[in-house]
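Lab notebook page, bench 4
Experiment: in silico fold of construct C2
Operator: M.H.
Input chain length: 167 residues
Purpose: comparison with the prior construct
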Amino acid sequence: MDELINKVTQSGIITINLEELYPEGERVAFDIAPLLVEGLMLREKDFREFVKTHNWSDYAGKYVALFCSTDAVIPQWAWMLLSNALAPFVKQVTFGSLETLESEIFTRVLEHFDVAPYADQRVVIKGCADKPVPVNAYVQLTALLTPVVKSLMYGEPCSTVPVYKRK
């Protein structure tokens, strides 16, 4: 009987799994709409009182997305006050949806991603993930790796889609 040979292991392909870079921590959305008068406008005095008295420590260690679920026009300073109140407690705060938040989280992670180990290597970015890795993370990682890798692929080492190959 012939010995089974794992050609994927012998290929020298390095796999990057973005899911392994996923920062732990609960993601929450903070909707400003319930603080609006008749769902339309923000009363500054009442809003400032809310910001002053609300228990922001409930958000400790979380990632927070600030948004408004109505079409009300919210002044910029309101988002700034919320951000300022949350900052001492949260891992990160941003304006936008949970999807926007996730994208910004990965942007921060990838700012510190060391591409040096991948220089002149054949690299595959793993495609399937159980955690919500945003498309933007794949886009940013591709931009980081393309200048240094020999080739870049997407998928699994046994079944990849070519993305880039140095000439």
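Observations: The first strand starts at residue 14 and ends at 16. The chain has five helices and seven strands.
Next step: discuss at group meeting.
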